[in-house]
Design goal:
alpha/beta, TIM Barrel, nine-stranded mixed sheet, 8 helices, 9 strands, 22% strand
């Protein structure tokens, strides 16, 4: 699972991970940061569902503890047409917008936009809305390997879609637990710490395509039950 650093000119990047700010994760921001740093990731995008406070907290922790990890503040945005990933945000994007409206809202913050797990029938796939071909020119990458897709050929279809539309494909962990951090990521040769840098870096990224296990996938429904039992929908567990 460990990424491992191979030199100052190489960066190891996971563009989709969750903390306990998400309704379906129990992973505290501090634990996520420490796990990512210990496994050799240099950059981690925290993309909680429809909120960014977990990512903002993680960014401060990474800086204060001098971990060497750069946290990119992002969000998994629930639109009327399916999920999108927005990165380099300072304000949350409202849920329930149309996909084009959500993309425009990310661009207003000079952010980048990706399509997560587009062919996963168990999650908020853009495929179901029939808008993916129209949106392709408006986004920056496609998750051509999402480590949480364990059944079917969703990743293969996503990679084919990215190639057909001339979009970079990336590998992500989509981690909802500490165990998943770093299970899939991209290795790049350019510093992805800014929107322009990441956009340039993903054009020729090396995909490292691990998979989550059945055990860690089981964490998600468990997390939902725990958070509902606590009555507030979201918790932060040390």
């Amino acid at each position: 699972m460990a990424a491992g650093r191979s030199g100052a000119d190489r960066f190891f990047v996971d563009l989709h991970a969750h903390t306990s700010a998400s309704f379906d994760s129990l992973a505290a921001p501090r634990s996520v940061v420490r796990a990512a740093a210990s496994r050799g990731l240099t950059h981690l995008a925290i993309t909680d569902h429809d909120r960014i406070e977990g990512a903002l907290e993680a960014r401060e922790i990474a800086r204060d503890e001098a971990t060497g990890l750069t946290v990119i503040v992002g969000q998994e945005i629930k639109t009327r047409h399916g999920d999108l990933i927005g990165l380099f945000l300072e304000r949350p994007i409202p849920s329930g917008l149309g996909a084009r409206e959500a993309i425009a809202a990310v661009r207003d913050q000079t952010g980048l936009v990706g399509i997560p797990h587009p062919f996963d029938s168990y999650r908020g796939s853009l495929l179901a809305s029939g808008t993916m071909d129209d949106l392709a020119p408006l986004v920056d990458w496609v998750e051509s390997h999402n480590a949480r897709i364990m059944l079917g050929d969703g990743n293969h279809k996503a990679a084919s879609f990215a190639a057909e539309h001339g979009l970079p494909g990336v590998a992500v962990s989509d981690a909802h637990s500490i165990l998943e951090i770093g299970v899939a990521y991209i290795a790049v040769g350019r510093d992805p710490s800014t929107p322009a840098g990441l956009l340039a870096a993903i054009s020729d990224a090396e995909l490292v395509t691990g998979r989550a296990t059945v055990f860690v996938r089981a964490v998600t429904p468990f997390a939902k039950l725990v958070q509902r039992a606590r009555g507030n929908g979201r918790v932060a567990i040390p």
